[in-house]
Amino acid sequence: MDPIRREVIATAAAATAVAATTGVLxxxxxxxxxxxxxxxxxxxxxxxxxxxxxGYPLLCVPGGGLNSVLASLHNGPFDPFKEFKAxxxxxSQDLRNANAGQSSGPLDxxxxxxxxxDDQLDLMDHLGINKFMVIGFCIGGPLIWNLLKRAPDRxxxxxxxxxxxxxxxMPTLTYDGNMMGWGPELVxxxxxxxxxxxxxxxxxxxxxxxxFVFTVTRDFVRQCQTPILILPDDIPAHPYxxxxxxxxLAPNAEVSMYPWKEPKDRIPIAVRQIYSFLKAHRPAxx
Amino acid sequence: xxxxxRDILTTGVAAAAVAAAPRVFAAQTGSTNSFYVKGNVRIAxxxxxxGFPLLCVPGGGLNSRMGGWPxxxxxxxxxxxxxIRCITMDQRNATGGESTGPVPVDNPWDAFxDDQLGLMDHLGIRQFFFFxxxxxxxxALKLMERAPDRxxxxxxxQPIGHRxxxxxxxxxxxxxxxxxxxxxxxxxxxxxxxEKYLHNLYRVRADFAYSVSRDFVRSCQTPMLVLxxxxxxxxxxxxxxxxxLAPNAEVTVYPWAxxxxxxARTFNRARNFLKAHQPRxxxx
Lengths: 286, 284
What we know:
By secondary structure, chain A is of the alpha/beta class. Chain A has helices spanning 3-20, 70-74, 80-83, 112-126, 140-150, 173-180, 182-189, 195-207, 218-223, 240-249, 267-281, and strands at 36-41, 44-50, 56-61, 88-93, 132-137, 155-161, 228-231, 253-255. Chain A has an eight-stranded mixed sheet, with helices on both faces.
């Protein structure tokens, strides 16, 4: 389908669905920003951006923890939409219930990681895309591992940039950050959600399996045959040790130079490596 | 031509040349190497594997010789011999090696490039990959400058680079390590000649990778993969500068030589780099 037509339909569908849903989506239907669109599945509304074109599909997961939104992608260390547009069709979305974003849906307390994976796979389905590549920043790391577990036959290759992970010396870092930042803001916007629900949701995300990359085991990574490129970081929420351990365990992983974000003139070198990696693993046909 | 037949022929040519030049080659007996001879220059080389050619230059500064491979951090002929046709050589006048020739005082970097391109010509190879450890990084850049249409891609492993805070590391290494041994072999070469040679290698362009300018690297379209190191002679900053300036260069993680799993991944990345940049057909 022509991308513009698809966007128009998606926006219209979103508006209709929003109007019909009073519980979860009580807020008025938002206007899609230029170049973005909505699609609905059940009670979930996803705000997404699709570059369109004939390039191989590249799902881009913005950083920002649970406030992962399109703007963080475009204002990050580099913007995949700009850097890879010549060969790839970049697609991204606001994470469900990110405060600054326009994607919303139920807070699925029992399946926190899987609901985000559902949303990503649903978006790909909505766009008629079976196989795709993925690049993710920060929370995109754990989300990508979960995608690889859930849909190993659909994800052709993955790039994990500054991935988040568990840091034993600061075991509640991410939980605490979200309890103080993301949770209270969400509760303000969504009266049906309580802090008790937020607390249970975050417990299941970050405290139930407080290890490694949160979403998968080392055994999973050890047997994962998907080509992986990891660009480590080393801030409290993005432990270098976890990034390198994952890179060493995954049989088809490679790793970038570190640091790669500072000084700034190293970023283009990292981008070049990602581009080569993506091109090298791009199947002949989508 | 089949590699084995080519080896036999080149060995035969070298043997004939050796017989014709007894003064230069008097020290050669029982070598397992093949030889290429051009004028006063004799280059010892070996080949392994088959496929698109990869010229592998060992590290060791002016003692860049094939005998260094077994202890090299990246033993390229060993790593790549099942993927590609590896050719390696002793550099001219490396002590412990079997390549000899005049000391090219006025044009040292070009003389190394002449030897390397001459060997490729001798083997009937037009286009090839280049792998260089240590001083091989500077050789790689010089080759790309001299023969941009012949070098299909290059891996620069632990390249040397000028370190402003220790500006004479390479010069001193040449003078204190290479020169005394070399003068035992060729006592007719004066220390004054050697100092002039080292000056032209490392002090005339005391910057960056010595052999070429930053402007050249900025304009160089050849794909490169840089594997940095960070020792006195192998300035990390030079590796990053090469990768930053060259429009088609990439750089690996650093450090990459340890642990073994990371080293293995780095070798795989190098292998993938060669695979990605191999021309469809080898231009011969």
